[in-house]
Structure formats: C-alpha cells, structure tokens
Amino acid sequence: MRDFLTRLPKAELHLHIEGSLEPELMFALAERNGVALPYASVEEVRAAYDFSDLQSFLDLYYQGMSVLHTAEDFHDLAMDYFRRAHAEGVVHVEMHFDPQAHLARGVELPVVMEGLSLARREAARELGLSTALIMAFLRDRDAEEALKVLEEAAPYWEMLDAVGLDSAEQGNPPEKFVEVFERARRLGIPRVAHAGEEGPPAYIRGALDLLGVCRIDHGVRCLGDPALVARLRDEQTVLTVCPLSNVRLRVVDRLEDHPLPRLLAEGLNVTLNSDDPAYFGGGMLENFLACQRAFDWDEATFRRLAGNAIEAAFVDEARRDELR
Ligand code: ES4
Ligand code: ZN
C-alpha cells in the first residue's frame, strides 16, 4: 500500500508554504540572516510543536517564519518543499502564502513574489511539478488591510490563481471580508476560504454565499448542519481536508474519530491535503498513509480522493490531462 500511495499521482490543494518550513531550514535561515530563535536545537523546535488548538499553532507558525527575509529565503523555502513533495509522488501543489504576515515584519510583497516565482519556474523545469499560487488574507487582521494588500498586489494579479482566507477562524466570520472578496471577484480572481475548521457550519455557508468561494478549506464541521451537507453534495463543492492537521490542532482527538468516512459516505467532494506539513507531522504521503492506517481504505478510495483534487486543481485542461 505504501508503494501504491507513493506512486499515486497526488495534487495538493491546501498547503501553506510558510508551514512547510522544516526546523533544519529554520535554523539555516536564522543563521544566514542573523535572526535569534528561542530554541537551542532542531529537537527543541519539534518538541515545542505540541498544540492545544489553532491559535497555539499560529503563535509558533508566525514566530517560525521570522527567519524569512530575502527573495532567496522564499525560494529556498518553496524549493525545499517542492523537492520533498515530488519525492512523495506529488505532481501538483497549490500553495497559500500570507503576505500580511511578512509585511507586518517589514518584508515587502515583491520580495515574497520574486522568491516564490523563481521556485515555481524551477519546480516546473527540474521536477515537472506544476504549482498554483493562492494569496491568503489573515482573517484576524482588519479587512481594510486585506483590501490594501489586494491593491498592492496589482502587478501580480495575473499570477494569482486564487485568493484565500486563513488564520484564526473563531470570531472572524466571512462577513468581515465581503468587500475584499467582491473586489477579487470583479478582478476575475477565483476565491477559496478556510471555513469549518474550528468555526461553525454558518461560516461555511457564509464563505459560499457572501464570499463566492469555489472550494472550502477544511469544512469538516459541515456535518453539524444536514441542509448544508445536502448543498455541498448537490453542488459538489470541494473540501480540502487536512487529516493530520485536524489531529494536531485537536479538531479531533484521534484520526480514527475523524469525520472523513462520514464525509465520503455523504457523497461529498473530498480531497486530502497536508496544510502545514512541517508542523503537523508529515506531508501528503504521511496524510494518505495515516488515513490508510486509521480507516483501512482500499485503493479505489484513494484513487477517488486523488482524482477529486486533480479535477479541482487550478490548471488548464492540457495539464489536467497530464495529471489524470
Ligand atoms: C493554518 Cl491549519 C490553519 N488554519 C488556519 N490558518 C492557517 N494558516 C496556516 N495554517
Ligand atoms: Zn490551512
């Protein structure tokens, strides 16, 4: 099964590139940039990744990315991940990035874009790996700032496959970002949003109705609302589910308790993703393997899940045919 899952062509639709920063690279970049880290060793970093909820993770996630300063850093970060993903049989990666988290520490948007763009071209050339770019807004910061970032990104609008919405969900409902997402819609940029990770089913409805998203990142809490489940099934809305993330952020106690089998039984359009692989115990392959252990799914189920992601990927039809 490990061989089968490695060879299965996998498309990843939900990855935060800053969450792919492994402790080894964190230390290397800290040294290169003269940044002090509150850890003495790689082991100490990994030991600190014992989260009680989304916020306790976000605190370390924003601290970890403080080592990223130059375009070269962003390039190295992304290439480091693309190489690992490629070795796991990942053929396409859609990466969220968080411009506001970098702007807040004085790292300007062109620096981030230059580094990520260079890595994307290199991944295509050297690994045959296609990539997409999702510029995410931080929902725990104000909407005016998000709108400003969207305008500042004008030179890069053509390069954005979508805009997204991430960070602390509770208390930051989709309503807050109606104007920003309306602006993206008018620019012809597709929209996605995290919803129903820690937040209620109403946030999933809000993301669909108020933000016009074409897919829901996480969405696992939809099961609390049967009418919403029926709608997600009828519309075949893609859910980018992140199994190991949900365990590590205590959305569920154990993977065996995860709603994934119920989501599938409801006929929903589910995909498997890694979210923040450096923080949650593994990339795409580890997520697939963990599901195999927890749910004992057959090959057809995994083919279905991987196929769902390929059908939903932001690629042209020629590339989709290659991925199939
Ligand atoms: C995130 Cl797991 C998760 N949820 C919301 N926002 C995020 N940013 C990075 N990882
Ligand atoms: Zn996420």
From TrEMBL:
UniProt-annotated binding residues for substrate: D276
UniProt-recorded name of the protein: Adenine deaminase
A GO term from the CC aspect: cytosol
Native species: Halomonas shengliensis
Enzyme Commission no: 3.5.4.2
GO MF annotations, alphabetized: adenine deaminase activity; zinc ion binding
Role summary: Catalyzes the hydrolytic deamination of adenine to hypoxanthine. Plays an important role in the purine salvage pathway and in nitrogen catabolism.
Residues annotated as site: Important for catalytic activity: H218
Family membership: Belongs to the metallo-dependent hydrolases superfamily. Adenosine and AMP deaminases family. Adenine deaminase type 2 subfamily.
Annotated Zn(2+) binding sites: H14, H16, H194, D275
SUPFAM superfamilies xref list: Metallo-dependent hydrolases (SSF51556)
UniProt cross-references to CDD domains, sorted A to Z: ADA (cd01320)
Every Adenosine deaminase domain range: 9-324
Lineage of the organism: Bacteria, Pseudomonadati, Pseudomonadota, Gammaproteobacteria, Oceanospirillales
